[in-house]
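Let's practice the habit of predicting before peeking. Look at the sequence and jot down your guess about where helices and strands might fall. Then scroll down.
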Amino acid sequence: MWCSPGTHETAALLISALRIPLVAKIADIGAGSGALLVRLRDLGYSHLSAFDMEPIAPPLDEIPVNICDLNEPFCEGNCGKFDLVTAVEVIEHLESPRAFLRQLRSLVSAQGTLIISTPNIANILGRFEFFINGSLRFFGKKTYLEQRHISVLSLDQLRWALEEAGFTVTTVVTAGSFVKPWIRRLYSPMAAFVRLICGQLASGDVILVVAQASTIPDLNKLRRYRDKYR
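Done guessing? Here is the structure:
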């Protein structure tokens, strides 16, 4: 899956909750192994496309792959418009997250939806790690060098960047965990208490955001953010 266990499952549940029609055109950006596309195909979606630097292996013959560099303007030309675009565990690997979001906006139809994720640096383990040594979970030297986690985005930063790009955030959830199941069961009685004290982001290794395409960026809201923190 190339992401924490439970992330794709939650993305699929979000799509089901949004009642995305089975005839919808869907593009998965940074498709990797194609695991999310296979899950969507099994749910009955047939108009699927992939964008990635390399072909999906093994290939999914019925799903076209657009070979592209996501650090470059990959939507130029006749890419078309999509009712739903997914970008799961991609943006943290890219050099310019905001340029990437503008590219995604050009792919999403006028009434379309984007589901995007990024590592949750604010979960309880991440807070402990930052408290102890001042480093961000998922963005240490090992993940920087081996997994190329090079762009950190908090939930607020992701929300503001989405609004700048022409999206309106409608839903935020957390999902996934690399922690072994038996350990999760051990501390599960404390999970509700931790979320109550520390908020929504206290659990889950990944933040999943649902955003709707808007006509233009909400410049008034962006100005209020600017004035608030000036």
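How did you do? Residues 7-228 form a domain with the Rossmann fold fold (CATH 3.40.50.150).
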